[in-house]
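Side project, low priority. Logging it here so it doesn't get lost.
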Amino acid sequence: MANTFKAEDGKVRCSWCAASHFYIDYHDNEWGYPVIDDQRLFEKICLEGFQSGLSWLTILNKRENFRAAFADFDFNRVAKFTEQDVERLVLDAGIIRHRGKISATINNAKRAKEMIKQEGSLAAYFWRFEPKRDESIEPEVMATCEESIALSKDMKKRGWKFVGPTTVYAFMQAMGMVNDHALTCVGHTKSKQLRNEFTRPSGLL
């Protein structure tokens, strides 16, 4: 099928990860597997914002540099960044030197702290928007969904930046809020099992 390929190890995977062994490693070990850790969720939504207009491989290759630049995406620390930090990061060749996205990450760290006070955790908030899908049906190729549009709208209302519906849907896919591995991909069964075993944050219906 066009949405999968057979890699050198004989395993069938989603076709998008064929371009690089970095993609394959990311696909096999991270993409589509549920995450509840607030720091990882914050990192991912920020990196998806940086990815806007670029390839994810560009971000993936620079991810360790981003972590070093943004205090491992500890939002409590990033929220304290100043204009001096913005100027420092704009000169950091190891990351994407986009002033707007850098400033947005600092802004979003402040919004994350507010959200935790309001919602208890980032996980409790994000997982409230989990799309409802039949995992026995081949995932559609789509850039947004009803839930990502709703989540994006609500986050913008709360003051978050660079969180459009497409960015948010990519975040949902990566964090395992939806299983978009192709049915014949080795990751589909793993994602389905982990999602079945996953304990959603308390307070969700």
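Brief comment: The chain has one domain: 4-197.
Revisit when time allows.
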